[in-house]
Amino acid sequence: DTEVTQTPKHLVMGMTNKKSLKCEQHMGHRAMYWYKQKAKKPPELMFVYSYEKLSINESVPSRFSPECPNSSLLNLHLHALQPEDSALYLCASSQGTGGFEAFFGQGTRLTVV
Amino acid sequence: AQSVAQPEDQVNVAEGNPLTVKCTYSVSGNPYLFWYVQYPNRGLQFLLKYITGDNLVKGSYGFEAEFNKSQTSFHLKKPSALVSDSALYFCAVRHTGGFKTIFGAGTRLFVKA
């Protein structure tokens, strides 16, 4: 299994809603990532988990809250988002850091209304 | 600080012709370099990487890239382009031992039949 699975594929939420994005991998990878991608732009790193511990938080607003319940799962909890947070949210995993390539999920297309 | 430059927003090539997508980088120390491809509404797919050793790296779908340390470049190439190669291509760099991957702005490749 070489897949990173993200759910849901599409999400529309109001600015007062609370929702969660989910990501799962069964490749035994110990590093997992959340990226945000706006249209026709490169992915922007949000969070990195290594061995289930948060290693990098790229100064992301607190309305985004990551969680890594175990080595296979990564969640992104959303609360009180703004319309400008609408984007494609990508989850990725890699065997480790350094020279290991990342495997990306198909993403969740988030629209905040 | 790490950075990646993809000087061309778009590359147009006829099917069957060779293609080149350019990438230059700036990083202290030895870099890990990657190429990813993204099809519409999809996540990124890994194509190839340079870690160390032979400067010519071969990857998926007939793509290859040449690492040039003196020119700090890592151009993506393919001898004969296919219409199905049309997509958005990202060059990326990671510092040795680092978690963070920096992506270039992306180059859109159009292959015309």
Q: How would you characterize this protein structure?
A:
The complex is a heterodimer of chains A (113) and B (113). Chain A is an all-beta fold and 113 residues long. In chain A, the strands form two sheets. In chain A, strands 2, 4, 5, 6, 9, 10 and 11 form a seven-stranded mixed β-sheet that branches. A four-stranded antiparallel β-sheet of chain A has the order 1-3-8-7, with no helix packed on it. In chain A, strand 9 and strand 10 form a beta hairpin. Chain A has no helices and eleven strands. Chain B is mainly β and 113 residues long. Chain B contains no helices and twelve strands. Chain A binds chain B through residues 4, 6, 31, 40-43, 45, 48, 50, 55-56, 88, 90, 92, 97-99, 101-107, 109, and chain B through 32, 34, 36, 41-46, 49, 51, 88, 90, 94, 96-101, 103-106.
Overview in brief:
Chain A is an all-beta fold. Chain A is 0% helix and 57% strand.
Question: What's the topology here?
Answer:
The complex is a heterodimer of chains A (113) and B (113).
Chain A: E1 4-7, E2 10-13, E3 18-25, E4 31-37, E5 44-50, E6 53-57, E7 64-70, E8 73-79, E9 87-94, E10 103-104, E11 108-112
Chain B: E1 3-5, E2 10-14, E3 19-21, E4 24-26, E5 31-38, E6 44-50, E7 56-58, E8 64-68, E9 73-78, E10 87-95, E11 101-103, E12 107-112
Parallel strand pairs in B: 2-12
Antiparallel strand pairs in B: 1-4, 3-9, 5-6, 5-10, 7-8, 8-9, 10-11, 10-12
Features:
heterodimer; A: 113 residues; mainly beta; seven-stranded mixed sheet; four-stranded antiparallel sheet; 11 strands; 0% helix; B: 113 residues; globular
